[in-house]
């Protein structure tokens, strides 16, 4: 028997689980890339530089992975809806 939400909708239909999994994978891979790049390539710099560069690398890597997975359009559409 499927688990049901309060209004009788099956739990598996309340969320796009594939997209959610892809978002989680993209976030984890982007974080791993930024951490390795900031800790290894920028080891000679101070922590402030590594944090700033790591944040920028994280954002760039995450957006690139979203585009590769085809999820970038959905994110832009969601942001467009928020602006209105």
Structure description:
- The chain has one domain.
- The chain is elongated.
- Helix 1 runs antiparallel to helix 2 (47-69).
- It has helices at residues 17-41, 47-69, 72-83.
- It starts with 16 loop residues before the first helix and ends with a helix.
- The longest helix is centred in the middle third of the chain and has 25 residues, at 17-41.
- Helix content is 71%, strand content 0%.
- The chain is built from 3 helices and no strands.
Summarize the SSE layout with pairings.
Elements: H1 17-41, H2 47-69, H3 72-83
**Which ranges are low-confidence, i.e. pLDDT below 50, for 5 or more consecutive residues?**
none
Structural class: mainly alpha
Q: Which sequence of SSEs, written as H and E, runs from N to C?
A: HHH
Tell me the Rg in angstroms: 18 Å
- Give the tally of β-strands: 0
Into how many domains do the coordinates divide?
A: 1
Envelope shape: elongated
* Ends distance: 41 Å
Biggest beta sheet summary: none
Number of helices: 3
Q: Classify the helix fraction into a percent range.
A: over 70%
Kindly report the average pLDDT value: 85
Strand-residue proportion:
under 5%
Keywords for this entry:
84 residues, mainly alpha, 3 helices, 71% helix, elongated
In short:
This protein has 84 residues and is an all-alpha fold. It is built from three helices and no strands.
